[in-house]
Amino acid sequence: MNQRPTRRYRTAGRSLRLFRSFLVEQTDPDRFYGDLADDTVALLSGYTELAGSTVLDVGAGPRQFAAAFDGAGARYVGLDVAVGDLAEAAAPDVVGVGERLPFADASLDCVMSSNVMEHVPRPGVVAREMVRVVRPGGLVFISYTAWASPWGGHETSPWHVLGGEYAARRYERGHGHPPKNRYGTTMFATRVGDGVRWARRQPDLVVEELSPRYHPDWARAVVEVPVLREVATWNLMMVLRRR
Description:
Layout: H1 6-9, H2 12-22, H3 29-45, E1 54-58, H4 63-71, E2 75-80, E3 94-95, E4 108-114, H5 123-133, E5 134-145, H6 164-175, H7 192-200, E6 205-212, H8 228-232, E7 235-242
Helix pairs in contact: 3-4
């Protein structure tokens, strides 16, 4: 295991670069997803040796993720419910659902999900499946957007804070079509506190880190502050190791 270079990596400059990349998600998706994929590889490399390992991505990331992990020497396996309909989407290596992963117990070196848990109705079930298929000593990496954060409603933000249904109706009136992420169907009210409590209650996991994914390292303490963490964390990163 590497010696936590993620702390030196997660600077204010890195946060600024990611923010600038987020601003061009719609106009320059190659840049946005490429930066996000590279950042994910850098984060994981702080906790495990990727070269020669098998990494399962639950909710397969865009095609840039496969390229980034391949570049790090890992065998990247993307799983999704169906072939994506976006140009940026990668064709999944395995078609399946997170609630029933088609892999044997303790068969993978690393299992990750990036911005998936806010789109499933039972995130705890998916997380337990991820734990089941990772080997002892292997890594589970989960990150998700908090509902109460400024970007919690995704394309319906910031109006989601007034209610998911209201935000969806407002979006449809303004754009002439319903949002891709519909509250209660494909997007749910995930909370930072729920994830923190879940992680700390799992007897077969060691919590390596719970922190805001996109913030500088010095801001990690925000996840320990009830109420504030729901707004200020934006995206919770959970780094967990199987006992």
